[in-house]
Amino acid sequence: MRIAVFSDIHGNCFALDQVLADLQRHPVDQLVCLGDAVQGGARPAETVARLRELGCPIVMGNADAWLLTGEVTSDNEAISEEQEAVRQWSLARLSSDDRAFIASFQPTVELPLEGGRRLLCFHGSPTSFDDLIFPETPEDEFVRLLGPFAPAILTGGHTHLQQVRRLGETFFFNPGSVGVAYDRNQPDDAGRRLDPWAEYGVLSSEGDRLALEFRRVPYDAGPLMAIIQASGRPYAEAMAAEYSARAE
């Protein structure tokens, strides 16, 4: 059994289509999305339409919930004028059915694996989509967040960072970001640069054997920049500029 795990599309349907094309070339048995699917990018309605077509389980992410409610649940997150403007623009492009579809996303999703194992899917942690898990997260904090859910294989998104980390006899992995891949260790004064590739992971289960593959699907950023600039999204030029240094 092969499960494609993807996360953090953020309304970048162009990047999602690159992942789906890659999956046409390298098929799997099951797909699951770890949330933050719609808010932020230039094609929120198109992203919803694509996810409807896939019919796969989808986890509720913090950006999904904020898009619908406007309520900030994390003490560490301040909402900027730009973010709110993009939120209002995104909502205006979503039908009532689209919003109901997003509201149907689940806090967690559990999928059976071979050998009696299971895969527990979430956004930040199984108890909160706001929780952050990094490679440098202290071990005691890591165990506090995920230890009660072992021995399941654990997967979450939120940090846009492909990583795997052992937890006793099991492990946690993050498949990275489909729509907003970037290096979080960029210099603060350089301005954020986004990467022209879409990230996801594939977990394979054959009897007692497990395998994890991280995939990175490169694409030409030029067409994506044109989509952003033509979308009418607030602050479109600033967003497109985050790709421009990579496209040159």
Q: Roughly what fraction of the amino acids lie in strands?
A: 15-25%
Helix content: 25-40%
Task: Name the quaternary structure.
Answer: single chain
Question: Could you give the count of β-strands?
Answer: 9
First CA to last CA: what distance? 40 Å
Structural class: alpha/beta
Helix-strand pattern, N to C?
EHEHHHHEEHEEEEEHH
Instruction: Tell me the major beta sheet.
Output: 5 strands, mixed
- If you compute it from the alpha carbons, what radius of gyration comes out, rounded to the nearest whole angstrom? 17 Å
Q: pLDDT average, as an integer?
A: 94
Tally of contiguous helical segments: 8
The main sheet orders its strands as: 3-4-5-7-6
- Based on Cα principal axes, name the global outline: globular
Low-confidence stretches: none
Could you explain how this protein is built, in words?
The chain is of the alpha/beta class and 248 residues long. The longest helix has 13 residues, at 13-25. Strand 3 (109-112) and strand 4 (118-121) form a beta hairpin. Helix 7 (221-230) runs antiparallel to helix 8 (236-247). The mean pLDDT is 94. Helices cover 33% and strands 21% of the residues.
Topology diagram in text:
Elements: E1 2-6, H1 13-25, E2 30-33, H2 44-54, H3 62-69, H4 81-92, H5 96-103, E3 109-112, E4 118-121, H6 139-146, E5 153-155, E6 162-167, E7 170-175, E8 197-206, E9 209-218, H7 221-230, H8 236-247
What's a concise summary of this model?
The protein has helices at residues 13-25, 44-54, 62-69, 81-92, 96-103, 139-146, 221-230, 236-247; strands at residues 2-6, 30-33, 109-112, 118-121, 153-155, 162-167, 170-175, 197-206, 209-218. With 248 residues, it is an alpha/beta fold.
